[in-house]
Amino acid sequence: MPVHISPSDASRPDADWALMLRRGLIRRCPRCGGGNLFRTWWSIKERCPRCGVRFVREEGYFTGVYLVNFGVVLAVLFVMIMGVAVWLGSNPGASAVPFLVVGTVVAIAVPVLFYPFARTIWAALDLAMAPMELDEILDATEAEDDDDGDAGAG
């Protein structure tokens, strides 16, 4: 079955950036909204099983995942620190030890729990900033036709 794709398909994303970001926030493919993207908590499939888009588009691609994850952890800890500062300011004799323990647990738990979300959010941000080129669209279409979204490591 021949693939009918034109060069204009490469110049526009499949969805607007807000929709792609919403899809990333709920661990969906930013291009098509398909699910079942992860083999394990830590391992994403090479391609979307539904549309065939490749998640690792270049060498070092998922370095941005760590930036997204780090930013979320910093934001959560900042809000906690501001809350603790206000609370300790209104309760001068209170101990900060419980807050330090909770902060340590949060600093360890949030990146672990948020990691798969960071992967799909980064995929959405990247796809919004750098829409697929014609060769990527053809590659995804061929992979979609092969129905092999689980090949390779991601």
Name a few traits of the molecule.
154 residues; mainly alpha
Can you characterise this structure?
- The chain is an all-alpha fold and 154 residues long.
- The protein has one domain (7-143).
- It contains four helices and no strands.
- Helix 2 (63-90) packs antiparallel against helix 3.
- The radius of gyration is 20 Å and the shape is elongated.
- The two termini are 29 Å apart.
- Residues 148-154 have low confidence and may be disordered.
Sum this structure up briefly.
It contains four helices and no strands. The chain has 154 residues and is mainly α.
**In angstroms, what separates the terminal alpha carbons?**
29 Å
Tell me the number of helical segments per DSSP (H or I, 4 or more residues long): 4
Radius of gyration: 20 Å
Number of domains: 1
The major pleated sheet works out as: none
- The residue ranges in which pLDDT falls below 50 over 5 or more consecutive positions are 148-154
Tell me the fraction of residues in β-strands, as a range: under 5%
What is the overall shape? Answer: elongated
Helix and strand pattern = HHHH
Q: How many β strands by DSSP?
A: 0
| Overall pLDDT confidence | 84
The helical percent reads 40-55%
Task: Name the structural class.
Answer: mainly alpha
